[in-house]
Amino acid sequence: MQKRIRELAEGRIECAKPVIEFSVSRMELEVPEREDVSGEFMVISRNHVPVRGIVYSSNPRMECKTVGFEGEEVRIQYVFHSAGLLEGSIQKGEFTVVCSQGEYSLSFLAVMTRIYPVSQTGQIRSLGAFAKLAQAHWQEARKLFYSPAFLGLFGAKEEKERLAYDGMVSGQKTDLGLEEFLLACGLKEPVAVTAEQAEFTFPQITEKRKEEITLSKNTWGHIELNITSDAGFLEIPKRWMASDDFFGSEAKAVFYINPANMHAGKNFGRITIKSVRQEITIPVCAVRSTKGAGTVAGEVRQARIGLLESYTAYRLKRIVTGKWAQETLKRLDELIVRQPGNAWYRLFKAQTFWLNRQKQEAEWILNEFKRKWKDKKSPQWGYYLYICTLMDQDEPYINRLTEEIEQIYRTNREDPVLFWCLLFLREDYAQNRYQRLKAIEARVMEPVNSPVLYVEAYVLYLAEPYLLDRFGEFEEKVLNWAKKHEVLTKEIAEQVKQIFPGKILYRERTLLLLEACYGILGDDGMLTVLCEYLIRSQIYGKRYFSWYALGVEKKLRITGLYEAYLMSMDARGVQDVPQIIQMYFKYNNQLSYRLKAVLYVNIIASKAKRPAVYEQHYKGMEKFAYGQMALGHADDNLDRKSTRLNSSHM
Predict the structure, then answer these.
(1) What is the C-alpha to C-alpha distance for residues 364 and 350, in angstroms, rounded to an integer?
(2) DSSP 8-state symbol, 426
(3) d(C-alpha 507, C-alpha 523), whole Å
(4) pLDDT tens sequence across 55-111
(5) What are the helix and strand counts (H, E) for the chain?
(6) Do the Cβ atoms of 244 and 225 come closer than 8 Å?
(7) Is 0.70 surpassed by the pTM of this model?
(8) Where are the alpha helices (H) located in 358-415, listed in sequence order?
(9) C-alpha separations of 595 from 241, 371, 542, 563, 624 in Å
(10) Which helix (H) or strand (E) holds 173?
(11) Dihedral of alpha carbons 121, 126, 132, 133, sign
């Protein structure tokens, strides 16, 4: 230290210069299209003398994230921007490091590449090669299709294909999306299905019978089929089929003929097989034998109706749990005697026992079912798992069983019991009544659904009437169900009054619903809704006169009410027309001649009661009578009017 002080005192100042080197001698980058590549290199002082300086790039695509630096070993970070560059493009440049000891350069080279999707057989470098992969290994192709690497297949001239791809991947990741993409690009033919059987005829049906439709497809690819029937005796256990259900080019669509839902003689129905691009309709004619089967079928039907009625009363809190359980268990025992092979009835018993706190009885049934039932992908097994979730409240356990039930439901979407179970298990339904209601609506609007869903929908409305926020086809179905079962409440009727639309087609069932709501509320607001609905729909006649008469009595201010009153009166009768209507048409009489005749006949008839009104209308009535006779118009009211008018002034 003393030596250094003497050197400084003598003016001897030595300044060491750093010796700089880079961690690389040259940078070469491979940059995928549409991606930015980050990296770094080191500026190192070999003699450990700190260095201070700045760094910049000669190429605007190379951005220096580290501009200024200081130290013995410094990291210089950079980002290369590839926007707009295509495969094969080359970008060159230099990093320049400037410090007090001079300038240093480090050259770089960036080559644009493309990331191609990779399958088990190697890189896929074209859409044609991808189509071949899809034909041989559909699931692997589907996985690649929805991966980011798939964008590497599109060249500069494949803009149409790229737009088609963007449209397909913007929604859910489905097999149908891949199929539609291949079709849009012209890489395959559409999958078409043919049915081997054009029609079915069954001469004698005495018991439930299983039948099959043989389906064939013309080419490889994905197809989804929706199978429905328009007759109750034709039961479709599996309403959705897809490519996975085909063994090679063939598949079997199963349906059952159930004599319990048939009437005596010939029963006609149709089975419809529908895909995105085609629809096949197969007529079915089945004749039910009446030898002994009808009695059992009728008893089974009545027992099932009783089960539904009891459940409805229980869900609507019209009976207590104990009474419901007692009635339900009795009917289930009757059904088990008549149909001993039906596993559903025993499972229903298990749930009923559990809800009635008869846990031991429920466990006996479930243990026996678990031991004997082999099909772990059937709807019955899914329902068994649901009952298990009631018996064990451990959340991870419930979540695991819920996932398993959902997997079973995906292949048995037609089963209403599984759908009902998921209404109470799925978190989005359990925590959000609106979402649960929307799910029920979607199911109810399908061609085949369960009456139980109407119960669940109406229970939601009772809990939160504001969920009834519109009057559509679904809402009307549920409300008419409630009217039929006489469970409409004041709160629901009030909500109907608030949401009833201004424009809606006339239907008798809609009028009956409004009449039921008025019967509950009995207020002028509901009466206004009812009368306006009839007037807008131009519905007049004796059937509706009482509503118009009540509207006039309540002095409702509704456009067209007085005209509707006259048009709905009994034209052949004479009755006391309210004075307000008589006075109204003195100043605003645009009625047809027939309605004027009806009005004037009733004014003449009430002359003794309202002489002033009669005198006010007399000249108009006299002029009208002579005018109509001159025109040759004649009917009972005109004849009576002329006769009474003449006799009243004799």
Answers:
(1) 8
(2) S
(3) 23
(4) 999 999 999 998 888 888 899 999 999 887 777 788 999 999 898 667 888 999 988
(5) 25, 20
(6) no
(7) no
(8) 359-372, 379-391, 395-410
(9) 62, 79, 15, 9, 12
(10) none
(11) positive
